[in-house]
Each structure stands twice: as C-alpha cells, then as structure tokens.
Design brief:
Largest sheet: 8 strands, mixed
Helix content: 25-40%
Radius of gyration: 23 Å
Mean pLDDT: 92
Distance between the termini: 61 Å
Number of strands: 21
Strand content: 15-25%
CATH topology of the largest domain: FAD/NAD(P)-binding domain
Structural class: alpha/beta
CATH superfamily of the largest domain: FAD/NAD(P)-binding domain
Amino acid sequence: MISRRQFVAAPALIGPALIGLSRKTDRPVTGGFVNDSFPLGHRLRDRAAFPKPAQQLRVPIVIVGGGMAGLSAAWHLDKRGFHDFVLLEMEQQAGGNSRWGENEISRFPWAAHYVPVPAKGDSLARELFEELGVLRDGKWDERVLCFDPQERLFINGRWQEGIEPEDGATPKDRAQYRRFMEKIGEFRSTGQFTVPMENRAKASPLDRMSMADWLVQQGFGSAPLGWYVNYACRDDYGALAKDTSAWAGIQYFASREPEEKGPLTWPEGNGWIAARLIDKLKRYLRTGGMVYGVVRSGNTIRVLTERTEYVADALIWAAPTFLASYVIEGAPRAEGFQYSPWLTANLTLDRIPDQKNAEPAWDNVIYDSPALGYVNATHMSLATHVDRTVWTFYWSLAEYRPEEGRRLLLARDWNYWKEAILNDLARAHPDIRQCVAHIDIMRIGHAMARPSPGFLFSEERGRWLKPAGNMFFANSDLSGFSIFEEAQYRGVEAARGALRVVGRA
C-alpha cells in the first residue's frame, strides 16, 4: 500500500497512477494560482533594496499586518475612541488567513472557515459577535450556526455522519474512544485548557512530549482513534501528532464544551468577520504597501514603506513573528517558531457529484487521505435546490518538515496540484472530473504556527510575549497555534499596551 508520504512525495511514485494525466475524455478544467505573495516575502528574506519613501507622516500608533490580529487591534483602538492610527497590509486584500473570494455561484473562504461557539462569560469573541449582530441577548442567530449535517467521513467505500471513524470500528476501538473522551473530560475539568490559552494555561510536562507519544503512554493503540487524533492535529496545527505538543493536542479537545452548538460559519467562512471589520475600519487601512523597515529614532519609531515613512510613538507588530528580524532593526531571530505550509483550492462545480445515497454535509473528509477534505460553500444556503456549488479543498503538508513542504509548494506547477486534488477527491466521488469546471489554488508557505513539543512553555516564546519598549507583538503565532480567538486576543492585548504608551489607556 502506498503511504500518505509517498502519495505526496517522490515524483517517481506519483506518476499517472496517482497524480494522473488528464484523459482525452475529461472535460477541460481552467484555473491557476491566486494570491501568490511569496515574491514579496522573498524580497525581505533576500534583503533586497527598496526605494526611499517619498513622504513622511506623523501617526501615534502604527499597526503592521492586516490579518485577524491586526484587524482586532484596530477594532479595539477604534472602539476605545482612539482614531489616530494606521493599519498597514502588504496584500491587496486584508484578512490574512480569513481572506475570501466570490464568483457567480457563491462567496467562499480561502482558509479559515469557522469559529467554534465561544464559551459563555466575558469573552472578546462574544463582544465582537454581539457588535456584529449575530449574538443577541445571549442567543445566537440560527442562520450562522452550521446547518446539519455538519460533518461526514468517507470510509470503507461509503459516507458516515461525523468524522470520528465509526464504520468498521471494533468494540475495542469504541472502548478506547470512550476512555479517551473520559481523559479529555478530566483535563477539561482542571480549567487549564481555555481559549484564549493565556487565560489559565500553566506550564506542563505535557508540552515536552508529542501527542503521539502521549497516546502510546496512555495505552491508546486503536488505529481509528490514532487516525482521528492525527487528523485533528493536521487540521488545526498543520502538523502530525508526532510533531505536535501533547499539551496542544489535548487543548484541541479539552478547550471546548462537548455539548456546544455550532460552529459559527458562513459561505465565505471567517471572511464574513474580516469583511465587516474591514468595512468598519477602512479609514485606517492601507493595503498593497509592504513594510520593509522599522527603525528606532529616539522615543519614536520610523516605519518604512515604499510610498510613505510613518513616524510613530508605538508599533503593533501583527505580522508573523518570524518576519520581525527581517524588518525591525536589531530584532532577534524568532527561534523555535515553526510554520506549516498549506495549499487551499476552490473548485467550481457545474453539477453536484453523485453522493452515493448520502446526504451532503458542510465538512467532508476522506479517511486516510493526505489532504484534509473540503467544505461546501453553499451548505449554508437557504435555497431549496442547488445545482452548482464551490468546494474549498484543504491540504496541510504535515508529512514534511516545513521547509520541505514550502519547496514542494513552489516546485510543482498548477497542473500537478490540480491532478492531485482531483485524484484525491475521486476516491469518494468517481465522477468528480465530469463536475469540475474551474480550480483556483492558493499556496501559503507560512500558513499557521505549529505547536511543536517543548515550544508552548519555552523561554523563547515567553520573550516575544513581552513588549520591546514601545513595540508590541500581536500575531496569533505567539500562542503557538493559529485560531481566530488567539489572533483576536493577541491583537487586543497589543492595542491596550500601545494605548498606555500614548497616554490613552
């Protein structure tokens, strides 16, 4: 049997049998790579020369990075009545991993596509959702709670509801499922596994071992359970269980209430949130201008772009932390930070593939696939009948060391990835090639932080949590993993620090 690593890896093994060559009878599929920004990032990496800015502006607070952390920092400043700041984003569209697209069929996500229902109590996420009108008097708008069926898994030649492998599970497997969830319940009851993590997280020896080793230590040898836990790590962290901190692996399960409704989702995924924040904050936003230098000048900070030099009293660095040493004068390398490369694709389908008498779901996973499956953009539609749709396909290259995965992303052309995607989907949908008309693919070299063993409670991560004078770091990678609530928390905390600097706390 060919392993997942072999499926994705060696060209000698991937030939026509797996990656495939389009047959003459296949309908033509158009498409290409979109949102490719790596050439800009490589200019920073290679220390390229940049033109001197043509103008200088005095602005008390500058935010660098328009992903969810930067947008959240701007949201907090604006909400607290502070309006003298700018938000600088390298891309033409802000949103980071919450960017979205749209075609004649539907809006669709490019990466982040849901938010688990935030726990009750004092929560930044709940505060934002109340402001956006989807949470009123403690009740969620039913239109944003994922419609049933939410998830399904293709296993043993058929679809089952839910992604925990039940079809073919033995009594021993089910006994291990129950014991695993009992252990998770014990961890949940400690109150140390929360979102955001800084609320109650405590240094733990669990961080020094991998999730795979913890499963072995606890006697969890069930293959279906091992697959499920490994899938969870790949899905949220872009890493295999053997490369994920056991603390983070447990956090994935123990930080959420098991009886919660949800998740919250929209056709464009978290792009719905980003779009509303962008609209609210557009007067502060400057897109398409990469920051290539940050220099201290006495008590002020000079922020250099190709068009403008901003002179600020405080800086919020909401871009990925590893970029700081390439941009901020004197900043150290971000040792220990690892980032998973991802590939996402949006497939335009002119008709729905044969579902094999199963009901279509929002999140669709294929057992033992190297990829993570797809979400259906029209699942949340109120239409009684849908002929055409858009599927967002996810592939974290978790089997590779991050640098290997990034090289693979750039080395293979669009046709290579198109064929890999269609062949993977054909296992569950044999008629997929007769349904797909267009595939756009996005490559994200540093898509999300990997919580590798030993990193979450390391001194290195702790150093970046502290401000460097009037510079505040805010990216979700400071939490060791990239989810909406962590990005929001980091952005708001940095904004609070910046307000103290300018005397507006």
